[in-house]
Every structure is written in structure tokens, then in C-alpha cells.
Write a structure and sequence with these properties.
This protein is an all-alpha fold. The chain is built from 4 helices and no strands.
Length: about 110
């Protein structure tokens, strides 16, 4: 449980840090960093879960899911995409649910 709470707080800290420095970061670096955090979180979580560190692996998946939600909002804002918040939230929930099923994750 402690690893899950730490992952949630760490994910929130990443989102706040990026939001505070968003204008200073070039667009390509923003998109690259967003995808790197998502991919890195899911891959590292899978590796750790197979090495008997299931709690830390699941925590990394939570961070990756938070980064996925943040990236939907940030890419929409960065490229001035139209749409409502409900569609973005539904996309985030669907993507996270798909990841949870594919990874057989209970916390996700």
C-alpha cells in the first residue's frame, strides 16, 4: 500500500512540475518526455513484476497511467485540439482499463 501511495504522489508531483515549467519546454521535448514516461513506466513495471517486485511494478503502472491522462490534456492544449473534458476523461479511462486488462493489474 505504501508503494501505491508513493506512486500516486510521485505522479502528481510530475504533473505539477511539468505544468509549472510548460512554456519553457520545447514542443518536441514535451511530447517525447510524455511518451517516454508512459512507455518507461509500463515497461519498467512489467520487468519489476516478473522479478518478484510486484508492488513496485504496479506502482510504476499507476505512474504511467497518470502520465497518460496528463499527456491527453497537455497534447490537446499544446496543439489546440477541440473537444470536451468528458471525452478526454473517457479516453483516459478506456486507455487505463485496456492497460489494466492487458497487464492483469488489480490496482489499475
Amino acid at each position: 500500500i505504501l508503494a501505491m501511495m508513493a506512486a500516486l504522489l510521485f505522479g502528481a508531483a510530475i504533473l505539477i512540475f511539468v505544468a509549472a515549467n510548460w512554456e519553457a519546454i520545447p514542443r518536441l521535448a514535451r511530447v517525447t518526455a510524455l511518451f517516454a514516461v508512459i512507455l518507461g513506466g509500463y515497461v519498467a513495471g512489467a520487468v519489476l513484476k516478473t522479478r518478484d517486485h510486484a508492488a513496485i511494478g504496479e506502482a510504476l503502472w499507476i505512474i504511467a497511467a497518470a502520465a497518460f491522462g496528463g499527456s491527453i490534456a497537455l497534447i490537446g492544449q499544446m496543439y489546440h485540439l477541440s473537444g470536451d473534458e468528458a471525452s478526454a476523461l473517457l479516453t483516459w479511462c478506456a486507455g487505463t482499463a485496456l492497460a489494466a486488462v492487458a497487464l492483469r493489474s488489480n490496482p489499475l
